[in-house]
Specification:
The protein is of the alpha/beta class and 682 residues long. The protein is built from 17 helices and 28 strands. Helix content is 30%, strand content 19%.
């Protein structure tokens, strides 16, 4: 993606030759008296805001009745933004249907797994499979596109908002009909479905697609492949809504890029964003740090790296974050001084070319009235608004990084389908949490200051020196082959326990575990080994020293001792003396197998050994507590150093600090809670 990823509507001379980093957030003028709008525009200019999202929740304003339309207020705001030289990310307004629609047509409402209708009065009160909702939503999109497609302020189209956040999965009658249609297209005939679902178990065999229902609440465990396919269908159905709206926008206004805001966060998993990414012109993400998470700064880094992976390494948009407190967590403390700046610049460091927030002005009423904004309830005379102005100045100082990309030597394979399957019941252990394990391996690299791309199962792995494959329980043959090819080509591939066990139908691969990876790893496991909660074992070997592990152990048999070496053994537990970690030479690379869940120290030592063997080293040295990442482009590189600690630190090397204008010849101090961004020669 080039530096002109956004269609900035202003003449090039006003952009000073290079588009700026985008900065702003959701603007909801319909919540405020008209006299506030001009004040908002002036404050936006003071803060350095250059992009606002309009219209997200305005359907009821734009169409107050089935046969009535009112665009006059939005015309006025669009013109005000144009006069203020603030670009607009214009939402299609389909995120939340108006009460007249759901009152007259309750059949469009979503239904939960227990059969309870989710009524109007909140947001996303629609069934994604409803034909009537689709019809009315596309009529609105058509009118929006025709009216504003050529407006001088328009920079982006914003389809819906956080799709599937509250209405997925949906078990309505509309979903049932659409699910059957989706299954018929997927399998062709019901016998193929019976084979894929293994319906001879528990007398579930179907005689026709009309007998199939969504996996609603049942007496006990529902069919696992039915649940998996319904998860696939749920993601597809919402993706189809995205495609339908985007098709209208591209037909009417083909020169305006289209996006929608993903939710790449630790607690969101219903949508397979790996499949969605190709349907948007640029990837956008919403991210909110969980206040109670002591590793929140690491989860933020993982999510940013994952978003960059979805974007194929290209720059992406942070569409929403919070300036301070949110309203939806059990306890919502404000962000600590400096945290707004640190969180925002970490996102830029990891590939974001836009930093935007929900929302511009904190609401007076409604469910999100206690959600922070760039302008808080206290008004512009506040610490929070002054911090917003300061962040705008920081982003302006970083203009030269726009369009630059990141190159890493390490990839971590992350698959939503594996996540969906592993979250189901009736597995060997309920203590396995896919995203947590993936984050743990990522954290070992983050702590080592080694960059990593979090990529999907279909990603091109060529060129990576290290490929991490944590807990990839479900894996397709083509993905397993791609991972094996990476090792043959010279990568060090690390596969963990309970990987490769089932195929795309959630059927166990027979002949021993780890199934699809047996030949690659040169090992065979006859029986899976979950540990009871609180149980630990110890492993020992040159790669990890003596390390504590838990959650899982396996009786590993080395199939070919000539090609596969044992690098660590169990010291105790049910498999004392047996292999715990192995590696096999494959082509010019290595294939490692880790049969247990190493605790942090042991995993960090193992990662260090794998990196050293692969010739991967930290790009930059830094003090403990200083997070470092490097952004590169042709003529320069930029080192972002963020100090999350309470003590001053430093980052190695020198360079020009773009945030202060200070040139450093040697190690650069990074104050407690501070950030430096250094330009260095490429």
């Amino acid at each position: 993606m080039s530096a002109s990823w956004i269609r900035w509507p202003w003449p090039e001379q006003l952009l000073e030759g290079r588009p700026p980093l985008a900065y702003g957030g959701d603007y909801n003028p319909e919540q405020w008296p008209r006299e506030v709008w001009a004040q908002d525009a002036a404050l936006m200019q003071e803060a350095g805001v250059n992009l606002v999202t309009l219209g997200v929740f305005s359907w009821a304003r734009l169409q107050p009745a089935p046969d009535a339309w009112d665009f006059a207020w939005l015309d006025e705001v669009m013109d005000l933004m144009a006069a203020s030289r603030i670009a607009v990310d214009l939402a299609t307004a389909t995120a939340s249907p108006p009460p007249w629609l759901t009152s007259a047509h309750p059949e469009v409402l979503p239904v939960d797994r227990s059969g309870h209708v989710l009524h109007q009065g909140a947001r996303q009160a629609y069934a994604p499979s409803s034909p009537l909702f689709r019809e009315l939503a596309l009529e609105l999109v058509e009118r929006m596109a025709q009216r504003y497609g050529g407006h001088e302020a328009l920079a982006l189209w914003h389809v819906s908002n956080e799709m599937g956040c509250h209405n997925a999965p949906d078990y309505s009658e509309a979903a049932e009909i659409a699910f059957r249609r989706w299954l018929a297209e997927r399998y062709g005939d019901v016998e193929a479905l019976n084979t894929a679902w293994g319906t001879d178990f528990w007398s579930q065999r179907y005689g026709s697609f009309e007998q199939v229902q969504p996996p609603r609440l049942a007496p006990t465990f529902p069919n696992p492949t039915q649940v998996l396919d319904f998860a696939r269908f749920t993601s597809w159905q919402l993706q189809d809504q995205l495609r339908a709206e985007a098709a209208v926008l591209r037909r009417v206004a083909p020169d305006v890029p289209v996006t929608t805001n993903f939710m790449v966060m630790g607690h969101t998993q219903h949508l397979d964003y790996t499949a969605w990414a190709a349907d948007v012109d640029l990837v956008a993400n919403d991210h909110y740090v969980m206040a109670a998470d002591p590793d929140g700064q690491h989860e933020l880094a993982f999510s940013a790296d994952h978003t960059r992976g979805l974007a194929g390494g290209r720059p992406w948009v942070l569409m929403e974050s919070s300036t301070s407190a949110v309203n939806w967590q059990p306890v919502n403390p404000p962000k600590a001084p400096g945290q707004l700046r640190r969180n925002s610049l970490v996102q830029v460091a990891r590939g974001a070319d836009a930093v935007c927030f929900f929302q511009w002005r904190a609401s007076r009423a409604g469910a999100e009235k206690y959600h922070s904004g760039l302008v808080p309830h206290a008004g512009a005379d506040s610490r929070l608004f002054r911090d917003a102005v300061a962040l705008g100045a920081d982003l302006a100082a970083l203009r030269e990084v726009v369009g630059s990309t990141i190159t890493n030597d390490v990839a971590l394979v992350f698959d939503y389908e594996a996540w969906w399957v592993l979250d189901q019941p009736a597995h060997p252990s309920a203590q396995l949490h896919y995203r947590e394990v993936a984050e743990a391996w990522h954290r070992s690299l983050w702590e080592s200051r080694v960059g990593v791309d979090v990529v999907g199962p279909d990603a091109d792995l060529s060129g990576y020196r290290v490929v991490l494959v944590p807990l990839l329980h479900l894996v397709r043959e083509e993905t397993a082959a791609r991972i094996a090819s990476a090792a043959e080509a010279g990568a060090s591939v690390v596969v963990t326990y309970f990987s490769g066990v089932v195929d795309e139908h959630d059927h166990v691969r027979l002949g021993g575990h780890p199934g699809a990876f047996r030949d690659l790893l040169g090992v065979r496991v006859e029986e899976l080994g979950p540990l009871l909660p609180g149980t630990t074992v110890h492993v020992h070997g040159p790669s990890v020293g003596t390390a504590t592990a838990g959650t899982w152990v396996e009786p590993v048999d080395v199939v070919d001792p000539g090609a596969t070496e044992v690098v660590a053994r169990y010291l105790d537990g049910p498999h004392a003396g047996g292999p715990a970690i192995t590696r096999a030479r494959r082509g010019s690379g290595w294939a490692w197998y880790v049969s247990t869940e190493l605790q942090d120290a042991g995993r960090r030592r193992l990662v260090g050994r794998v990196l050293a063997d692969a010739g991967v080293a930290p790009a930059v040295a830094a003090s403990e507590g200083v997070e470092v990442s490097v952004r590169r482009r042709g003529e320069a590189q930029w080192v972002f150093a963020v100090n999350h600690g309470q003590h001053a630190g430093e980052v190695g090397g020198g360079g020009l600090d773009l945030l202060t204008g200070t040139e450093h010849a040697g190690p650069v101090p990074v104050p407690a809670g501070g950030v430096v961004v250094l330009r260095r020669p490429a």
